[in-house]
Amino acid sequence: MNSPTSRLRGTAKPSTLQMSPPSPSPARPGEATLLTTLGDDGYIALRRHRQATHTALGTLAQLLCDTAREADRLHTTLRRHATNARDHLNDALTDQGPPHADATAIHYASRATELHAARYAQQMHQLDLVLDAYQTALLAV
Fold this sequence. Notes:
Blueprint: H1 29-51, H2 56-94, H3 99-140
């Protein structure tokens, strides 16, 4: 019988929080906005402040990270809907089927893309506002 070596409970080395900033990626515009605006040191400080949940600055840092994460999620959704709309348009241009079916699909896909684009723009504006509030709070500390 092959059994792994056991460890005493509570003696394992605690995992360390990753403090290095991620590389900016066009697939994550919310995170890239934080990194660009705050810089490497500011981003690391944001992660540290986020751990202090019992302070107002910690709560604001958590809100900032949540807002950026939501912007990233909306960006992914927007890209998916835009790809879907493009695919429907390509199908309509190449299909020999009934034109009304293609028009309905194109209309629905473009409307969904338009709604998601508006929601994404709203979230990026919200991210800008929360980022301004966070930077103002840093000046007061």
